[in-house]
Amino acid sequence: MGRLLASIFSPLFSVIKIDRESTSSDWRKTWKANIIWLSVPRSSIESLLVEKKFKKEQLVVDVCSLKRGLGAVVARTGATHLSLHPLHGTKVPFIGQRWALIQTLSRGEKHPRGKMLLNFLKEKGISFLPACSEGKHDFMMGITLSIPEMLTIVLEKIIEKYAEDSNRPVPTQEELMQWAVPASNAIFGSYLHLINSTPEWLRNEIVRETPGSLLLSLHQACEEVGGMSLGNVGKKIKAQSKLVRTISLCERDRARDWINAWFVDSTKTLFK
After folding, report:
1. Residue 110 carries which DSSP code?
2. Averaged pLDDT of the chain
3. Whether pLDDT at 177 is above 90
4. Distance CA 66, CA 50 (A)
5. Which runs of E-coded beta strand occur in 34-105?
6. Please, which residues bridge with residue 81 across strands?
7. How far apart, in whole angstroms, are the C-alpha atoms of residue 189 and residue 177?
8. Could you give the strand order of the β-sheet that contains 35-38, starting from the edge strand earlier in sequence?
9. Rounded distance between C-alpha atoms, residue 122 and residue 145, angstroms
């Protein structure tokens, strides 16, 4: 993300790219910059900004996937804070991308440089999804980021247990893809995508450091599912059908057609 941001803003500003190998001189220049971008793991920001003092005119922009009270950390430096989160990652074209814009106490979106940045990104085709607080953002990321990542582990354990109870060896990932139908292809393909598209440090962060207790929630949910009767399972399936029907038929058909097309493509690749 850091390299991408540097390439985006190079036409507008003199950009200094900083990493662990940068010189002390470059680091000193960075802390004096008008706009400071934080494209680093959330867990490293406290130590990175410890004892740093900035002017209110300086804008600190973060793109962390989980905020976890980041606004308070930046506020201690005296800088104005603009909190963003590119929801689509670095592989999706800008036109059509959606970024979360998180409201902080210093309201960086109202800062003159913050307004300029947001307008520039909008011109690139990016739209913004407002979040009233870091807590709201992190809760939604817990659902849309952390739970899917956690479910890769759950999926493995269910398959292992089912194979054990059936007295059969655990199928390989290749076997799972070969035997897949469209619905399972979507699940196993998502499994591969989640692991393949996100660095291990970030997967650790969004699963293990999600605000709240995701593991406890999972444990309690699994206990409830394990205790459900067959009758209650049937009722749940019926309720799910009713829930999905609240989505427009056009949107449901679009999702199904996309998954079917993906399945045909992957099947051709596997069996060519």
Report:
1. G
2. 90
3. no
4. 19
5. 35-38, 59-62, 80-86, 98-102
6. 60
7. 8
8. 35-38, 59-62, 80-86, 98-102, 127-131
9. 24
Structural tokens at position 219: 């444990």
Q: Identity (one letter) of the amino acid at 14?
A: S
What letter would DSSP give residue 77? T
Percent of the chain beyond pLDDT 90?
Answer: 66
Number of DSSP helices (H) and strands (E) in the chain, helices first: 13, 5
Structural element, H or E, at residue 124: none
**Joined tokens for residue 176:** 């799972």
User: In the numeric block, which tokens belong to residue 228?
Assistant: 């459900």
Quickly tell me which residue has 């003159």 as its tokens: 112
Query: Which residue did the predictor score with more confidence, 169 or 88?
Result: 169
Distances 52 to 32, 45, 84, 88, 99 between C-alpha atoms, Å: 11, 11, 21, 31, 28
What is the per-residue pLDDT across 95-146, written as a single tens digit (0 to 9) for each? 888 999 999 988 999 999 999 999 999 998 999 999 999 999 999 999 999 9
Output DSSP code: residue 142.
I
- List strand residue ranges (DSSP E) for the chain, in order: 35-38, 59-62, 80-86, 98-102, 127-131
Lowest model confidence (mean pLDDT) among 19-23, 45-49, 55-59, 141-145 = 19-23
Give yes or no for a contact between 18 and 26, defined as CB atoms under 8 angstroms apart: yes
Q: How much helix, strand and coil, in percent to the nearest 5, is found in the chain?
A: 60, 10, 30
The pTM (predicted TM-score) of the whole model is 0.86
| Beta carbons within 10 angstroms of residue 42's beta carbon | 20
Q: Is the pLDDT of residue 196 over 70?
A: yes
Query: CA-to-CA distance for 84 and 65, rounded, in angstroms?
Result: 9
